[in-house]
Write a structure and sequence with these properties.
Elements (H helix, E strand, L loop, with lengths): L2 E6 L7 H14 L3 E5 L3 H6 L4 E3 L27 H14 L3 E6 L1 H23 L5 H6 L4 E6 L15 H22 L2 E6 L6 H10 L3 E3 L10 H14 L5 E6 L12 H10 L4 E5 L11 H20 L7 E6 L2 E6 H16 L3 H8 L1 H16 L5
Parallel strand pairs: 1-2, 1-4, 4-5, 5-10, 6-8, 6-9, 7-8
Antiparallel strand pairs: 2-3, 10-11
Helix pairs in contact: 1-10, 3-4, 4-11, 6-7, 8-9, 11-12
Bound molecules: 6-O-phosphono-beta-D-fructofuranose.
Subunit structure: Homotetramer.
Function: Catalyzes the phosphorylation of D-fructose 6-phosphate to fructose 1,6-bisphosphate by ATP, the first committing step of glycolysis.
Protein name: ATP-dependent 6-phosphofructokinase
Length: 382
Amino acid sequence: KKRIAVMTSGGDSPGMCAVVRAVVRAGIYYDCEVYGCYEGYSGLVQGGSLLKKLDWEDVRGWLSLGGTLIGTARCMEFKERWGRLKAAKNMIVEGIDALVVCGGDGSLTGADLFRSEWPSLLEELVATGEISTEQRAKYQYLTIVGLVGSIDNDMALTDSTIGAYSSLERICEMVDYIDSTAASHSRAFVVEVMGRHCGWLALMAGISCGADHIFIPERPHKAGSWRDELKRVCSRHREKGRRKTTVIVAEGALDDELNPITSNQVKDCLVEIGLDTRITTLGHVQRGGTAVAFDRMLATLQGVDAVRAVLENTPETPSPMIGILDGKIVRKPLMEAVKLTKSVSSSIAAKKFDEAMAQRDSTFKESYANFLDISEHDDGSQ
Ligand code: F6P
């Protein structure tokens, strides 16, 4: 019987529990045993009670839950070779030869590195007498399958990461709350949303909530003129009769000289045009809470496909990442997706913003372009 370990790693996202549930149940359906690896990579490094067999009933009720019930952690030990050596030994002791990791690009890169090092780790374990040559022969290959759990929607080669739509929903709900008090007092609100390197949440929240203006890292405003532009747009909307002003700022927003655009700077501009302005930083409410239907569906379909990918994997197959493109669940080479994602960040760092947008994916670019066209004619009436 194949033994699969499933772990959640990096920042949690709604839908991670649904992933674990799907992997456990699909694993049982396909006659495998599934182990929960608790606390991310620490579970592999420490082994023992952090590697626990999960049965069908153990994941009952997990479909809609937020966070991750098997825990997540940033594990420093796994970044060191000695930590990975311990992890390899623990896996062999438990008889685990496949790993399904749900996390962001850092966690998935760690998994792929582990796989590439696997033969040499086993070599070292045999040399020190910690495993036998029979065990080395039996566990010759390590299978890794990645699923992307991230609220930021910041991975290339997939249209959506698990958790992004739950977070977007939460942001929209919060902005709706803010809108009613804003309109009552005729106030302006600067709403800061998460997205360290990626503006998807800010952009989509801005579109979905009819924001007056949006600041994201990938499409930076000009350093010398964004303040005037912001004031002009918001004043125009007010002149047209809008009683509230909403500006969404991604936490990683930049101008075209790579200076951060902060909520306080945006607030100052709005105050200068006479608006009574407040800042709301949404923080971790964006990450917690139940998963929306889309994330439950995505987590379940991808979790099932992850088990199939484990069973179909050969030593020659590059580690797959399960994604979704044009509504279809797809497998893409994990490291290709990570590389492309990183080149978006480095394009931004090199001020090649158009390149960053083009690389991210075409749907993102098109929706932004459409939004710009609309906002040219926008009278601020939502
Ligand atoms: O998962 C990514 C993210 O949500 C970012 O958008 C945000 O900057 C970060 O996590 C916050 O992380 P932490 O919880 O470690 O402060």
